[in-house]
Design a protein that fits this description.
The protein is built from 11 helices and 9 strands. With about 300 residues, it is of the alpha/beta class. α4 links the parallel β2 and β3. The longest helix is centred in the last third of the chain and has 14 residues. The two termini are about 15 Å apart. Bound molecules: iron/sulfur cluster. The site of iron/sulfur cluster (SF4) has 11 residues, from loops.
């Protein structure tokens, strides 16, 4: 019996795992360090679902990382939260000279920040950066986690959505990060146009085999200013139904190793500029539908996992 089942859950929930790790509620603070992305600069269109915010929600402009942290900490302290994760979210947060990266990460650290999360891409991580992160982790006694999107194991879809990396390159980057002992969190979008249930299940198996530590499951949303946005307006995009999405999430979880922590079950579309998002439902409504289906099907994370 898996520990999360004994706790009354059908999947390994992030909030529960963080509480076990840090002994209390921990809040993630999304930061915008003003970096760019090699897949978007010099007129490149970027991943087809990405807009000019670099797939992040943080809009802080012209204020330092320290100021961003202080602003958000004050807001959450009123709710009684005392520990925080500094999350470099927008764009590619390892895409800058080494000294700049180090100075930027260190700015986010203070006595209340217990973890550094850095979102990046497989082609923007190397041993030099990982060595520097190791030094920071040891010097400041802080956990480091890398967020790296795979989106889908279907390497044909990766080309079609202009990810700018292949499946093999993703695997190589994950193995490099694991060698340094950092946590790695993968992102998947389970309803990319052209993907089917086979791709969803294979994505779960690949991430399980790679021993990633966490997965963020997203539903595709379409934003103004993205390539998908243009296609959507021209009626060139087929998006699966909500019922199909819920079914895919349940099958993904069944085939995913029970060791892996689930950071989210559905995307959180931005409040402005969204052309299509979550079938007009709230995030909570979709999470409830997924949890209900897990119960109705009497299934759970890892039930059918062959790669544990
Ligand atoms: S890697 Fe991230 S920031 Fe870069 S184009 Fe893709 S989604 Fe946008």
């Amino acid at each position: 019996m898996y520990d999360f089942l004994a706790d009354g859950y059908r999947y390994r929930k992030l909030s529960v795992e963080l509480k076990k790790k840090y002994g209390e509620r921990v809040q993630r603070l999304p930061l915008n360090a003003g970096f760019t992305c090699p897949n978007r600069e010099n007129g490149k269109p970027g991943c087809f679902f990405c807009d000019e915010t670099g797939s992040g929600f943080t809009t802080f402009a012209g204020i330092t990382i320290k100021e961003q942290i202080q602003l958000m900490k004050e807001r959450y302290r009123k709710k009684g939260i005392k520990k925080f994760i500094a999350y470099f979210q927008n764009y590619t947060n390892t895409y800058a000279p080494l000294e700049i990266l180090e100075q930027t990460y260190v700015q986010a650290l203070d006595e209340d920040v217990v973890q550094l999360d850095i979102a990046t891409r497989p082609d923007c991580i190397n041993e030099e950066i990982l060595e520097m992160l190791k030094r920071i982790s040891q010097r400041y006694n802080i956990s480091v986690s890398l967020d790296m999107g795979l989106q889908t194991a279907n390497y044909h879809t990766l080309v079609k959505i202009n990810r700018g990396h292949t499946l093999a390159e993703y695997i190589n980057a994950v193995l490099m990060v694991k060698k340094f002992g950092f946590e790695i969190v993968s992102h998947v979008i389970l309803n990319l146009p052209g993907d089917n249930m086979l791709d969803v299940i294979e994505s779960a198996k690949i991430l399980s085999a790679l021993r990633v530590d966490g997965v963020k499951i997203h539903s595709l949303y379409i934003v103004e200013g993205s390539m998908f946005g243009e296609m959507y307006k021209r009626n060139q995009l087929e998006i699966c139904s909500l019922e199909t999405y819920v079914d895919r999430v349940v099958r993904f979880l069944e085939n995913l190793s029970p060791r892996i922590t689930i950071h989210r079950l559905v995307a959180d579309p931005p409040t402005t500029g969204t052309l299509f998002g979550n079938w007009g439902k709230s995030k909570l409504e979709i999470v409830n539908m997924i949890e209900r289906k897990l119960e109705d099907d009497d299934t759970y994370q890892g039930k059918r996992a062959k790669v544990i």
